[in-house]
Amino acid sequence: MSSASSNAKSPGHPPLAIESVAKHFGGITAVDGVSLSADAGEVVGVIGPNGSGKSTLFNLAAGGLKPDAGKVRLQGIDVTGWPTWKIARTGISRTFQIPSLFINMTVRDNLLAAAVEGDWQRARDRMEDALEMLEISHVVDNLATELSGGQQKLVEFGRVCMRDPKVILLDEVTAGVHPNIRQIILGAIQRLRKTGITFLVIEHDMEMVKEICDRLVVMDQGKIVAEGDFETIANDTNVRKAYLGRT
Amino acid sequence: MASKPVQTPKFIVRALLIGAIVIALAVLPAFIDSYTLRIATGALMWAGLACAWNIVGGYAGYISFGHSAFFGIGAYTTAILMQSDFGASFFVTLLPAIILSIAVAVVIGGPTMRLRGAYFAIATWAFAEMLMQLVTVLDFTGGTAGLSLPAYLNEFFFYYTMLIAAAASFVGVWLLIEHSRFGFRIKALRDDEPAAESLGIRTNLVKVQSFALSAAITALFGSIYAYWTTYIDPHSVMGPQITDQMVVMVLLGGLGTIWGPALGGVLLWITNRYIWSTFGDTVIYLPILGVIIALVVLFLPNGLISLLVGRQRGKELISNILRKF
Ligand SMILES: Nc1ncnc2c1ncn2[C@@H]1O[C@H](COP(=O)(O)OP(=O)(O)OP(=O)(O)O)[C@@H](O)[C@H]1O
Ligand SMILES: [Mg+2]
Predict the structure, then answer these.
(1) Could you give the CA distance from residue A163 to residue A113 in angstroms, rounded to a whole number?
(2) Considering the domain boundaries, does residue B257 fall inside one?
(3) pLDDT tens digits, one per residue of B51-97
(4) Is A247 in the pocket of ligand 1 (CB under 6 A)?
(5) Closest ligand 1 atom to the C-alpha of A59?
(6) What is the pTM of this model?
(7) Is A48 in the pocket of ligand 1 (CB under 6 A)?
(8) Which domain holds residue B113?
């Protein structure tokens, strides 16, 4: 187990490859044999009705949950079953659907904490960059609890950037935020993807999806029921069934 | 803005304040009688102990109800090694005391700190109880009769030894937790473990490291205490009242702060001695501890230190730690 650092770049391997992963909770099959891979710089949208298994899929990819079956590979490295911290150090970083800032810490410390297992020497410079990109420099000394919901999302995004990851998973990062903040997030994703970072984004906002995603994956009841670009998905009967059939 | 903190005036005020405290503590013995010197020595010890408990309780957010075990491990290790069979000199006993306490902390903390905080609290409490029973029945610990140590009748020696140990603990915590990566790791896992893990922080390891550090400092004070009092028994160095005091001192002063535990330790120890000298007994001390805990948790969740330094962090600290249960 020596390849925990992110230097094992094999050109032939996608940054993220999920292979037939499954996860059961008691009687519920939350994720049911999902395969998905994403290329460098690609933004893949993961959509689907509530409870369709999107967040669980993210947890399986980032190591918060261990898959009952299937494999997860990062740049070709099989990280299935690894502890979360080790997977994180291999180059994947994620935000959480429920707010998960370090609430007794300032924005500054939240961001710096994200760099302790990475490039600590340049952490402060990188923090300035992240603060500037996300337009939160003015709240750097505020406690996490003193921020608006949208600002909290920005800081969580900033924390992810501080990791310098190859793959970023965003779980409903724009849910319920002010349009200005959504615009900031959108700009940041566009900018980072150009540097080759791969994104998987769970989104309920179709405008956002349409604007940033190269490709969409639609989940329903733990399975991928459709895949393709926005136009294809919008006209797909399976997708309509998934959304309309149960709401 | 600049990446360096530009708070020069504040920094100078702080440096002057710390310098004044250090000088005052260094020259204090010249101005007080030997009774007061004993109280001061005890106050330093409790400040250091509170500081130690705070590492795992306040910074990592794992509540230990078994720190008396480490105090006792230190005290008994020193006492046993200084018996005539071994005849070790005092300073030589410190290293084995510290190593043993770290080993025990790893064995207890390793498996239980992976679980919710309640498991850790119960495990540490149960272990401390068990260890106290054990030293009560074992031969080489002197059983209920306890152990006597060779007397070293120099109050100044103990005052300065406690001062150095307390100062070293304080500075150690300050450097390690307020000014290093370790501090970010430990505070991050306290606030949100899954998030900390997702940032590459090896939370299970950091938790055990913090517990071991806390245990080692506690054992160090146990060692010094044994030599100071020249006589120890199971209750005096392993009784639950030792843990209780540490917990209340930290809560009173300010959980998870750098100055709070020292403040709480000194204040509460002086109160303890005052009650003792006034009533000839410390029976009412325990109910007072209980009332203090209740009042602090209800009305002053950030402890007394928050009155002095104002806002330092969120009010959520205690509830955040309790949530781990
Ligand atoms: N830890 C868990 N224990 C038990 N069941 C779970 C757990 N996590 C998720 N589930 C169940 O798994 C299914 C998928 O949940 P998941 O959170 O992945 O859905 P989602 O697509 O993210 O939904 P949403 O859009 O509401 O966030 C749901 O039925 C959910 O109740
Ligand atoms: Mg979800």
Answers:
(1) 10
(2) no
(3) 999 999 999 999 999 999 999 999 999 999 999 888 899 999 999 99
(4) no
(5) 18
(6) 0.90
(7) yes
(8) 33-239
